[in-house]
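pasting for ref
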Amino acid sequence: MPLTLTPIQPGFAARASGLDLSRPLARADVRAIEAAMDEHAVLVFRGQALAPDAQLEFAQNFGNLDLGFKKASKAPNRLAHEELLDISNVDEAGQVADRNHRKIVGNLANQLWHSDSSFQSPPARYSMLHAVVLPDEGGETEFADMRAAYDALPPAHKQRLEGLHAEHYALHSRFLLGDTDYSEAQRQAIPPAAWPLVRRHPGNGRHLLFIGAHASHVLELTVAEGRLLLMDLLEHATQPRFVYRHTWQPADLVMWDNRSTLHRGRPFDLSARRELRRTTTLDAVA
């Protein structure tokens, strides 16, 4: 069956059906998914019970895989594949992690609005998050449309943003949460990357805001002015009218474009087991 799309919100997020992601995809199916991502930015595939190998094979259709923050964290990987990112509250022994475990900081950092791997060059293109074990309640994921957020800015505000760049740093969001226990080697593992506050999407040509929790300051402004600007932009861009809130079901796979969106996880009972597995691809354009 061909890919079938059912829009969730006008111009943003769609339910995707008609494809079995556990099987190799034809090139035409890959192109159809890419076109759908250019239009909707978030695709929700229900009922995709993917083994780790199948999730990796699906992701590899869309580019080279990214290790992201793992390059700085040096945390032990309990999964067999280094490129399969363990988005869970489960420790190395397979048990729900204690609240003081380093893994929990990662769960909390995911609750900040961010774009995956915006702190590196090249940044991320697509992320694909697969639900394996879910708590009874909580743990939703929200996505904000950075294209619509830019379009809604007043013309004078758009003009103000021209020529401005933010520096994104991998550990900035962790420092915000008081997680500062990193060696110098870890701090230097991923050099900061600078990106325009306004980028143009290569697939659809739309302008979008490129901000989020990894953005530490604006290069052309004082630190104070730049951080206030970043906070104002984030407040604007994450208004409910720009946000899709995803309530997870087992075997969901949600795919999003990190160039077009910000996302964040929502709180859940940290004593309840939650396991999701993420694959992320690198953007072809730095």
